[in-house]
Design a protein that fits this description.
By secondary structure, the protein is an alpha/beta fold. It contains 12 helices and 19 strands. It folds into 3 domains: 262 residues, Purple Acid Phosphatase, chain A, domain 2; 59 residues, no CATH class; 38 residues. The chain binds manganese (II) ion.
């Protein structure tokens, strides 16, 4: 059987207030082409179908047409909710769609759902674990102590029987990590402070393939068959050096599984250009790349350039960001970097205090500090 692993489509996403819907429509066309050419049987989408809990009309229509095209091609599609999706809205019609080969699991209802597929080699069980927080799991396992994300996932897996003689795949949308492995993160993900949301990869040892979503850079974890598909498009400038791809899994016998990464080429790339304004506006330079790309321009002129963004936009119509990097800004950027490196070590209250000071130019007084502490406590009680 041939399966395709997708995740983090983030349909309806805007970057710097620009809609990316045309780029998303294009990349879904590219994906459909791959499905046809490679004769894929099953498409798995491991969460973050949409960018927002209330997605735009364009985003909903785009996903609807994607599912319909896969159905018309006779493919089966499996979808779980990610942290960006509304689990209830994503579940719309899910029981009706089953007969058409579309399996959507938005809400965790106390039992890890699985669907059984069959080919010449026997059964393939596809387990579908939508994004959950500890609070979503605790209510079904009152006798267990669940305080962390890892406790929650461990509890779900421990309470699931998996037939190890058959082939087993799990779809998951959590921050899965392994000790000693650095997971590459991007700015377009929601990163929780202090990494409290991480889930250890060892929870998934029973599964032959772990189809993960959440992290936007494509990467394997401890083995080739435990991987983040990554988002199909670059969703922030921190991803400019990433290569977007889609894993195709050919699963024959239980021990005969191979992965191929097929690269995805967008209609417009996202990249950084750097130099003096006159160089950036020189035809010899800009003809080297696609002028329609999303651009972050770093201007190195030592003097301020009047209407630099307007000048650059005449050549690069999708310029999204402009920054100056010269002797003056390097000093001030260094200061900023010093600050950001310590963000992870600061408590939420400390972070709020520095934010407050930056906004208001005065320190937070003790009355307000108490109020903020109370809110932080309420919010963290609710989310854990
Ligand atoms: Mn995501």
């Amino acid at each position: 059987m041939k399966l395709m692993h997708l995740s983090d489509l983030h349909l309806g996403k805007n970057i710097f207030e620009e809609s990316m819907i045309d780029d998303q429509r294009y990349i879904l066309d590219v994906i459909i082409d791959i499905v046809i050419k490679r004769d894929i049987d099953v498409v798995m989408i491991a969460g973050d179908v949409y960018d927002k809990v209330v997605p735009s009309v364009e985003a909903v229509n785009l996903f609807s047409s994607f599912l319909t095209r896969l159905y018309k091609l006779g493919k089966k599609t499996f979808v779980i909710a990610g942290n960006h999706d509304s689990k209830d809205r994503l579940s719309f019609g899910n029981e009706l769609f089953i007969d058409n080969g579309v399996f959507i699991e938005g809400v965790f209802n106390g039992k890890l759902r699985h669907e059984v597929l069959e080919d010449d080699y026997g059964n393939i069980n596809i387990y579908m674990l939508p994004f959950v927080k500890p609070v979503d799991v605790r209510k079904y396992f009152l006798e267990e102590s669940i305080s962390t994300y890892n406790d929650a996932i461990k509890c779900i897996i421990d309470n699931t029987s998996v037939n190890l003689d058959e082939r087993n795949i799990i779809m998951v949308h959590q921050f899965v990590t392994a000790s000693g492995v650095d997971v590459l993160r991007s700015d377009s993900e929601v990163i929780s402070l202090g990494g409290i949301d991480n889930v250890d990869v060892s929870n998934f040892s029973k599964f032959d393939y772990v189809a993960m979503g959440h992290v936007h850079g494509a990467q394997r974890l401890t083995r080739d068959t435990i991987r983040y598909a990554g988002s199909p498009l670059k969703y922030s400038f921190s991803e400019v050096n990433q290569k977007k791809s889609v894993p195709i899994i050919e699963f024959n016998d239980k021990n005969d599984i191979s992965i191929e990464l097929v690269s995805l080429k967008p209609i417009r790339d996202m990249r950084v250009i750097k130099g003096n304004i006159s160089d950036l506006l020189d035809k010899k330079f800009y003809m080297l790349g696609n002028r329609d790309d999303y651009i972050n321009a770093i201007v190195t002129d030592s003097d301020y350039v009047v209407d630099a963004i307007g000048k650059l936009r005449c050549v690069y119509k999708n310029i999204l960001r402009l920054e100056y990097r010269n002797a003056r800004t390097i000093i001030s950027n260094d200061k900023i970097n010093d600050d950001s490196s310590s963000v992870k070590e600061k408590s939420p209250l400390e972070l709020f205090k520095s934010f407050y000071k930056e906004q208001n130019n005065i320190e937070l007084d003790s009355k307000r500090e108490k109020l903020v502490l109370r809110i932080i406590k309420e919010v963290s009680d609710e989310t854990n």
